[in-house]
Fold these 3 entries.
Entry 1:
Amino acid sequence: MDDRKLEELLSRLTAPEPSKDAENQALDRAMAAFDQKMSQTAQGKSATQRLTGISNILNHVRSKIMKKRYIVSGTVGAVATCALVAVLGAPFFHQQVTGLLGTTAQGDVSSLQLQNASALFEGSAEAVKASSATVDMDMREESERQAASAPMPIDGVTMEAMPQVAEPFHAGRAAPRDRAAAPLKEEAKKHLEMAPMQKSIAATADRAMPATAPSVQRHVTGGAELMIAPMPSADDVIVHHYQEQGRDQFQSFEENSIKNVKAEPVSTFSIDVDTSSYSFVRRALNSGVLPQKNAIRIEEMINYFDYDYAVPEQGGHPFQPTVAVYDSPWRSGNKLVHIGIKGYEVQQKPQSNLVFLIDTSGSMYSPDKLPLLISSFKMLLDTLSPDDTIGIVTYAGSSGVALEPTKASDKQKILSVLEGLRASGGTSGGEGIRLAYQLAEQSFVKGGNNRIILATDGDFNIGITNRDELKGFVERKRKAGIFLSVLGFGQGNYNDHMMQTLAQNGNGTAAYIDNLSEARKVLVDEGSSMLFTIAKDVKLQVEFNPQTVQEYRLVGYETRALNREDFNNDKVDAGDIGAGHTVTAIYEITPVGVAPVVDDLRYQKPAAKVMPDHPVVAPVQSDTADAANGDEYAFLKIRYKKPDSDTSVLMTRPITKADEKAFDALDDDIRFANAVAGFAQMLKGSKFVEADYDAIIETANQARGKDEFGYRTEFVSLVRLAKTAAGLQQQR
Amino acid sequence: MQQDDHHLVKSAQAGDRQAFAMLVERHYRSMFKIAWQWCGNREDAEDIAQDSAIKIAQNIRAFTFDAAFTTWMYRIVINAAKDYYKAKNRRGTREMPLFDDVEYISAAPDPEQQLGDKDVLRAIHALPDTLRETVVLVCWHGMSHKEAGQVLDCPEGTISWRVSEARKKIAATLDMQQKGKRHG
């Protein structure tokens, strides 16, 4: 065959197009393999830390299961919909399943083990035969052999049996295309009567998916191998909202419980001026789903709004507490104690030395990430004084200084660097942070505002990946007078936990930017509170008076709880407050004379008990008030440090019956904060608040006030969204 | 903003799902094409392409940028194809039709010509693995001898030798067929 003839001939012959199904499936499978691989080599975080809550368990089991393939023996046709129904519920069961599958992963699955598994499925809930599935062990050839022989059934359990504990993860392209299907096509034809049902389920799932978002689809169908096809009932056709999900990381925490004043009279916590939780919730609701519960930090939702609390004269304390006591709308007889503080506004801004630390890794490649970030920083740039300096450090596969500290007056230069940023490469956040601190030290302004502004989706996976290690580093640098603020971007892969850790330890704030108007709010309208810290390590301690109060419950601040003894310990870090920042804390109290929620103890003397893990501390000042103070509900103490000081200052104020007001007589701000607190608790699924969205809407509408920027109006529309979304699936 | 393979691979190695999805999406067709040229039927080629995509997911962290990503990828496809048939032969499944679904770039030639083309394809398919993969990569996919050497992990000279060997064998096969037809 001569040289050119062969090439000529071949060049005329081309491959056919692969089928779209095959391509989609290959992508799904590859994504699943990718996820599995990445979760095995979780970057510096254990598997349990990567995800929290139920999704964690789901993913864990899913990845275990994915080591084996499940194929349906009866319907291995063109629509070989896999109908394995996983029931994932109690941790007990989770362990059993993973334990089992863990062993099988190493060797062959014996029929005995399968029967065990089957028994487990049956034992854990009411078993309904969804479809019989064959577990395939050793890839394709095994599956063929098995499919040809008698199928080994695993009885699936319908989802209706355990609606709370498991969510079906449907896959749009519900047709695992195992090659077992090909030689068995003829056989499959016999089962055609099964196919329409399967097809309709697959079609439903497909319809439920946003056709306009193929990449989202792909992510969701990462787990395509394990699909759930419960027996179709009318309810099956509803609502499976698809979204990129499962990789947002939130710290999980329990809602604060009711404390008995006699047993635990003192409540201590650090302030939290972050607002990221609210933005994240807004984003979830705007996309039609309820946010995952761990994403909701009640205090951050309340503190998102600006309240017009009284501001002290300059020169004295940086803030003063505003206190109100009013009847609780959440439980009749109870009262709410509202404590608000607002930092003074800075008149003369100190010189700023800012270093933008910008994540330009591949994961930032999305319109709501890097491009939004660049626009946000441009807005911030406009608010700076000409003498302020800006440096830019980028981090991706490698970190680098994109812009040496440059005066804000040289705006063109800064803009051209910002606009030239491109997303690519891995994320070396740790290295980037080191570099940013170096730069900030280099152009340190004594007495000025030295700050690193980190903008990222929080996906640090090269460099210092360990949260604690990074935390230690940021903590050390904080002592050198450089603050760290964190701006979060993007969704689906957002590492909230890491962002919180960094901001809290770097004496900074964390904000989540989901759109340009949020960027304006954080960086421009409230830019000075983000940028100028007026008091640091602000701690609150409230001691309740057992003569007047039986029980109390702090609304929110779960992640900011401090030990009683931490209050007077200046070494213990706490939240900072910026110029104009407002912080609100709400306690729900059960006054004496009202039926308590928690019963009294039979064998304890009614004297105040000191909890064993709260050693007695020497009383400070006059908080050992004489017992005659029967009209005091509680005693409020606030400690803070001036930004450049290491010694704390104490403020105190009794909370008395004189602070009581009727609900309607309260300031708009206080009533509005109450509405937000109620809403946040509902979203969190609080056991202390009835879900009454309409009441929230009414209160919020009446308490809207001036609402210059429309944030409160937006809140009302979010409550409406939540009301409709309440019947829908929780974001995982 | 079109990102190049290098960046996508880097991101994917760092755990970026989106980057990985883009990467696989971008190259799926090429993987399928090579697989089809190797095995001669679409269904098997789809399976091989899928196996390859999974292998890429599993091994992406091991990719060291010594060669182009596509070079590495083609090697994975060729290996996946061989593995696939090893497994298939063990199972003793029936033969799939060869190159039935071939498409012509320009207007399809007359039926006789088509048959002739199929003969050539069958002759390629009948080559020993090492020659067959070389012909697929070099003569059909248009790869340089050097790149094919990287994919198949052998010196450039070996590729050149294999190409000429393959041509001889293909010619001999076609010759035999011609003779057979004449005498048959």
Note: DSSP finds 22 helices and 19 strands in chain A.
Entry 2:
Amino acid sequence: MNIGIVVAVALVLIVVGSIVFHFMSPWWWTPIASNWGYIDDTIIVTFWVTGVVFVAVVFFMAYCAYRYSYQKGRRSEYKPEDTKLEWWLTGLTTLGVAIMLTPGLFVWNQFVTVPEGASEFEVIGQQWQWSFRYPGEDGVLGTTDVRNISDENPFGLNPDDPNGQDDILIEDSEARLPIGQPVKVLMRSIDVLHDFYVPELRAKMDMVPGMVTYIWFIPTRTGTFDILCFELCGVGHYIMRGKLVVEEESAYRAWLGEQPTFAEYLAEARSGSGGGSTLVMNEKISLE
Amino acid sequence: MATVAPAEAEALPPAEVEDVELYHSKSWVTKYVFSQDAKVIAVQYSVTAGAIGLVALVLSWLMRLQLGFPDLFAFIDPTDYYQFITMHGMIMVIYLLTALFLGGFGNYLIPLMVGARDMVFPYLNMLSYWIYLAAVLLLLASWFVPGGPTGAGWTLYPPQAILSGTPGSDSGIIIMLVSLALFIIGFTMGGLNYVVTVLQARTRGMTLMRMPLTVWGIFTATVLALLAFPALFVGAVMMTLDSLLGTSFFMPSIVEFGEYLEYGGGSPILFQHLFWFFGHPEVYIVALPAFGIVSDLLSVHARRHIFGYRMMVWAIVIIGALSFVVWAHHMYVSGMNPWFGFFFATTTLIIAVPTALKVYNWTLTLWKANIQFTLPMLFAIGFIVTFVNGGITGLFLGNVVVDVPLSDTMFVVAHFHMVMGVAPLLVIFGAIYHWYPLITGRMLHEGMGRFHFWVTFVGAYIIFFPIHYLGFLGVPRRYYEMGETSFIPASADTLNAFVTVAALIVGFAQLVFLYNMIRSASSGKIAEHNPWRAVSLEWQTPEMPPAHGNWGPELPVVYRWAYAYGVPGAAEDFVAQDAPPTLAAASGDDDRQEPSPQPAE
């Protein structure tokens, strides 16, 4: 059989197979649980633009393989350049790029602009666990410094900062958020790079020691979601998991009321009954 | 116009540089071991890169075993796994692809394609290889030190790279950094050589705009590498100082496992900027030679000139320049100032335009051609498919907001393997099938080659295409095992097992290729002179394989561009670059039939 035809058929099969796979694949986005549906929309636009190009290019090659397979004595066309064609292709490609980039930049602008009135909530990463801090009654998170970290003060809060006294500290890797309210997540790491990601939220950001990073979103669906670390942080990277529970405001308030504040933490530690935090006293996790 | 009337031919400029007297080796050792002949050095580079590449191949199998069957292979623990992924990535990107394209193909092809007798600094060229070899051996040595090689990921991000939670943080990371520094030193010697050779040692008539795109690709990539590698070099030096002397270039105040570390004030993100200022051009250091080589493979075997030569040259140069202003698209979610996202998303998507033009011109080269489906042609077609596929997923990741959910997922893994792993490797395979007869005087076995092509091309595609969809799902990369999650269905495990089996099969096909290369060197079919009937100079040497000094007593004189295929009226369907115009004119290669925008003065 003519190998040109074999190649042409193989190329067509690759395109058709890819398209069929795309529509039949059981592996696709998790159902979204935040306001970042815009991101999914931008991806759909990108899929269409790039998909058309992929199909067109490979089909064109398949046609050439079929049509221009070697024949003894035939000469190929001698036409080194076609300026008009090349400018057309440049123009169309630029247009396609603009169609993808423009919505992308608009959505990015939303992504980095935190709306007024978003409540703050802090995520702290360390090898290989999550902990969380809520601002408490005053709505303001107290200042922190890695140098304040001790058994009594695992979050490194500034003990003299009045804003920090009512901060609520969560050490057991499960955070809760109320549905429908914009939240600004402030992120901090005390050792290496980590990355806070809940696939259903679509928003992620690295956590960098020495600085505070942020994302914002509005939870739009109640449920319990996995938190995973998405930046390689050492040998225990893959076991660094947590839970995010999104629930109705009332349930959230009730839960929050049961959690210890920083002031209570300090008091408990000073009385000697609590034995300090489990966080800092953790030995290196043995993985074997 | 390029050529033609004998009077014009005589008006060729005199040689600007006198023919050099080469070093002539007197013993076997100086001829084949400490050789100063670029062709021997090229083979040394290629064999070394191939050998270390086999190590990376085995590592990929081990990784896939763990991912496909997480409970089956108890001997792979998390420490091993992270060391495997790190070493696999670093070997493939630096020690295999960079070394093979520039040290291997660059050394062999540049002097031959521009009509030089050798590189301009042969002794430096020899040193370049031996330092590269030292870097490779040092890298391998890290398996034999306490703690083993580093498991920091090939990106080596501090602080974790030098802290105790990461495998190999005691000495593996230092060895890695020193090995990289050595590699860069060795590369710089070779790289200066390639650049100066292209600029200074071209033979008479070989104008820049007559050079084969292979030379343009390797030349531009080398310039990029000379500008980009220093960023990695200083990054490596600074991290070594942080680790050994306790400086804090990349280290802020840190409490690790409840212990204060004596660091403060440094910035982990600074390292990422240095790394990616190197790392993104590095993508093109690998891609541009592949672009150039594949252009030549397509043209020769389609029996047609490359379409839009001048556009192709300018696209290479523009892509090379733009590659220096896109690096932070690897850092959209790194915590850098988020406003950078606007700039880097825009530059990144702009680079898609010249890249897409190259793709169009490759396919237009096949249009109205007379395509011979030789092995190099098959691999070139495979390259276009995988490169387009990997290129368009780059548009997802480059568009800042789309990158947010996809970064650090398996989508990224699938993307860069398709575009920077499979695609350039297909070019390398095609190039080996193409130039093997020139280097050894023998042809590779066609049947084994066909087997190798179909298994590798189709296999690699069905390995990496579905992995994108795991990324959409939210499966993270660099996970030793997924464990329990609420969002990953059991079918993902089945897919992982399938991918592992496919990877082992594709890996096996590479062993067939290896066997083919070894076997054909002694018992392959003897190649006739210029077996592909190619235009470019490397096939026009008096002897094949080319002897020491490449050319006979006289250097060749070039009369036309490297793509004179299907010239109307010519006796054959190609006219060699150095065929005298009188001869060519006699066979019909006259003025009118030169391409009107002929890319030469």
Note: The longest helix of chain A spans residues 37-67.
Entry 3:
Amino acid sequence: MPGNPLTVQLGESDPSRKLNPEDQQRMLEIYGLDKPWPVGYVQWISKVIQGDLGRSITRKQPVTRLIVERIGPTVLISGTALFLTWFLAIPLGLYASARGGQIDERFTGMVLYALYSFPTFVAALFLQIIFAVWLRDTPWELPLFGMSDLPSDAPFFDRCVDVGWHAILPITCQTYVVLAYNSRFIKANLEEVVRQDYIRTARAKGAGPWRVLVHHAFRNTLIPLVTLLGLSLPALVGGSVIIEQIFTWPGMGRLFFESIRERDYPTIMGLTLMFSVLTLVGQLLADILYSIVDPRVNVE
Amino acid sequence: MTALLEIKDLVTAFHTAEGRLPAVDGVSLSIDRGQTLGLVGESGCGKSVTAMSTLRLVASPGRIESGSILFTTEGESIDLVSASEKQLRNVRGGRIGMIFQEPMTSLNPVFTIGDQIAEVVQLHRRVTRSEARTRALEMLHLVRVADPEQRLDAYPHQLSGGMRQRVMIAIALACEPELIIADEPTTALDVTIQAQILDLLSDLRSRLGTAVLLITHDLGVVAETCDSVAVMYAGKIVEQASAAELFRHPLHPYTIGLLQSRPDLDNRDSGPLATIPGMVPPPQDFPSGCRFHPRCSYATVPQCSSESPLLREVIPGHFVRCHFAEEINL
Amino acid sequence: MKQQTNSVTEEIDITKPSQGFWSDAWQRYRRRPIGMLALGLVVFLAIVALFAPAIAGTKPVVCRYKGNIYFPCLGYFNRSWEAPIFTKDKFRGTYPTNLEQKDSQSWAVWPLIFQDPYRRVRENEWPGRRANPSRDKGHPNRFNLFGTDQYGVDIFAKMVHGTTIALLVGFVSMGLAGSIGILVGAIGGYFGGWVDMITSRLTEIVMCVPTLVLILALVAVVEKPTIWKTMAIIGVTGWTGIARLTRAEFLRLRQTEFVMAARAAGAGPLRIMFKHILPNALAPVLVPITFGIASAILVEGSLSFLGFGPPPPTASWGSVLNSARSNLQLWWLVVFPGAGIFLTVLAYNLVGEGLQEATDPRLREAKK
């Protein structure tokens, strides 16, 4: 394995110092790095099943504790982003579908499309330049880094506001891409649904355009929408790695990034497992919601 | 007495990448109260588009370009072509009910049958939810659906094609409309179910006195159920008369051909089935002059290929679109 | 009633020449102006990528030295393609003055812009021109159209050469991903049964891990990150969507009559899969591949941006953005590469969408 954590650590702290061979061997044994990696992998799996994700080598703490510490900030950003996306995408999609082909819809459509192709890290940099550098010393300034500038014994409300202020930029970056994609998805789906025969039946009954859209069409769009919900979780997680790194936000994404740099394998594996589990949970959730929303599907 | 529905010179065209395709090219029809008019023709002749145009349900890129559709009810006439959205919505489902061809896809899969029938009642009458539901149950009884109480809460995918079509009929009749437009209601169903549905329709008609515009390609159905018949070809009406008259004395070569091509059970050894040579021309390739002339065995050059014949009343009450209608039938 | 024997029956000509599928799709694609614009951009980028050394560089495009013709600019693509004679004669990469001094008969055709993507241009390297400014003084100017980074390396040259890298990343990684995806999907879709189960589970497992996470994990394992290893990693993680689509297409086409005819004629599975089914399944699969190119460029940009890309000095757009992180006051470090990535990704996304609309079988049905 290229550069085990001990050498990396030592290399960073003092390039001239070197562990003598016996000490190195002993430390390798403690962290299980001395065995060939298939054996190590199997050992890791057996420990995981027992709920033990191992110890972080660089931070000298159980991986589980690290994850628990970091999960909150990530959920704050990613969770809010997820909520905002859905909250805003549905009306955007409905509006785009209702006003399809008109000038204002085409313009918004183009803007959304451009947003969708706009890389998050570039947007993050742009936003940082605008809000932290150009608007410095103005009331519009937003903080560049970290989650909070106040010490932990500052009043709770003030700390909340401060965290919120810090969170604005990261949340914006997380939200806009998924928002653009989702609203286009909803619009495309609605357009497809509206072509169906049962929509014609609804209009033949005398239903007005809004009722047709919101009651008949949208209810049918919910089905693929719910699947999309499950699938957007991994994207959110992946995005959080970059965003948290740019804004120095102390979340799981940043932990993942740092542990890769430090070659902290237990943490890397623990986090990868965590992310995969989240993905699976997301898909499971989507499946359950799907069976609720579509009467043609039987709940198992 | 004014007719219940009077379509005058209706033109509905589709504007596609291949140009302007006039699917309905100057069609005039009229239906009286309680009367059943059959609109017959092969696939692609424009009869479905005519039906859709009546309620302005033509799918884009189709558009009603000219003509009028006068619907007279309670002493008032409105022109459905130029009526406002609000007026049109009043008519749709409330005064004119429509039954579509595809029962499998015409019902919304995520709502129950009961909800879908109740919806049309709630759209046109001030009723409570439970009153609407009661009415839905009544309608299910009316259309002879077995186990109506249970079916109320069933979803469309749990019913067969025949039952779904009954539900569609229930929806169409729920608000006691004066006219029902049935667009090939039995084409997508099994033959045995077809008979049942047609029976049901006849029965309902006689009980409720509803007028019916029946779109079909099946001459047998028309003969059994319709008071008057209009034959459509390539976007135009080519013959129109009472059912009895049309079947006894068909005047247009196309109608003659259609009637001759029906298999005759009583005359099995009369040789191969007569057919009309050629195919229905697509709207982008309508022939010049009389649109039927390439397939017509009576067509004579140059008149038939250069002059478009008008719909004329050759015998009182019997209209034909042919230059030589009188000569052919003497 | 007696029928007259026919006098006039026109023959209705129902045959129209049938267009090939691809020319039909191209016709449909052409109708969208924005699709054509995007395609134009894609072609433009390809040209830039191909001719990068001739557009910006400090090595002559072609020169005559001591009686022979050389193409030193090719050294930008590959070190060994720069003729050894220049090392022997101790040029040390500085061509203008050396050429003149060492051979008065020499001539050279220079790139459009005399700048280097890997190093700072020194004082008088090009006779009469000062050295590249750096840091705060490095904003866009006459010699540095897009400015310079904190070390004085010209950004325009980096952008131009970065185009080559970006497109290379896109095509190579998607080539790899496409090959893997098509193979896995085809095998699963065609053979069905337990083979399909295995390939589907495999696809699902790889899909389960968020792509970026997987990529980063792999990057951690790889020793010395080079651009080629990055491409391989992206390729090896990005095939799942393609596999799923290929599988669906193969499942569908397996039932068609022409496949059954081929089997009845005795063709073996490999032949059927690759000669008969694949050409028909290709059209919908090209769509995710196109989107994949956009996504691969994006991923490479992110990786370089995070610092996981190939080590400096590289000319990739992402690495310029990386240096922007610690130099936020140098706005040109963000605007140009940012616009570059954005426009490239946008162009490929638009082309992919246009392709999707042009080849969508359902839309073809709706036209009837």
Note: Chain C touches chain A at residues 208-214, 216-217, 219-223, 294, 298, 301-302, 305-306, 308, 321, 324-325, 328-329, 331, 334, 337-338, 341-342, 345-346, 349-350 (CB under 8 Å).
